[in-house]
Design goal:
Layout (H helix, E strand, L loop, with lengths): L2 H13 L5 H16 L9 H16 L3 H7 L5 H13 L20 H19 L1
Length: 129
C-alpha cells in the first residue's frame, strides 16, 4: 500500500475511531478479491462487495472471522458501509450516485454468515471423508 494511502487511512482512523486501520486495509483487499471474481471489471455495488467481504473473511480467517472483524470494530454489515464511505470521503474509493450507505444495512447476520456457514462447510468435509 502506498505511503499516501496509509497516511490517509491513519487520518481517517484518528478522525473516526470506530474502526481500526486494519479494517480499512481489509476493505481494499476484499475489494480486490471481489473484482478478481467478476467476469467483467466494472463498478462493484455495496451488496456485491459485502458478498466478497464475507467470502474473503471466511477464506482468510475461518471460524475466527467474526472475532477478527469484531476486534476492528466491525459487528454488522453497516460497519462495512461506514468504512467504505469514509474511504470515499477521503478520495480513496469512488461511488456512483446510486450508491448509498443503505446498501450495506442489515444485508446478512454475522453469526449466520461467519459461524454457521463455517460449521456447515466443516460438516460437509467430515461427511465427504
Amino acid at each position: 500500500m502506498s505511503a499516501e494511502k496509509t497516511e490517509s487511512i491513519l487520518q481517517i482512523v484518528s478522525k473516526d475511531g470506530r474502526y481500526g486501520a486494519q479494517a480499512y486495509y481489509f476493505i481494499f483487499d476484499a475489494l480486490d478479491y471481489t473484482i478478481q471474481r467478476m467476469r467483467k471489471v466494472r463498478h462493484v455495488t455495496g451488496r456485491e462487495l459485502l458478498e466478497g467481504i464475507r467470502q474473503y473473511a471466511t477464506e482468510n480467517f475461518g471460524f475466527l472471522a467474526r472475532t477478527v472483524l469484531g476486534e476492528w470494530g466491525i459487528t454488522q454489515t453497516r460497519d462495512f458501509g461506514e468504512i467504505v464511505f469514509n474511504l470515499v470521503e477521503a478520495g480513496l474509493l469512488s461511488r456512483t450516485d446510486k450508491d448509498t450507505i443503505g446498501d450495506f444495512e442489515d444485508v446478512f447476520d454475522f453469526v449466520a454468515a461467519f459461524e454457521d456457514e463455517f460449521r456447515k462447510s466443516l460438516d460437509d468435509v467430515k461427511l465427504a471423508q
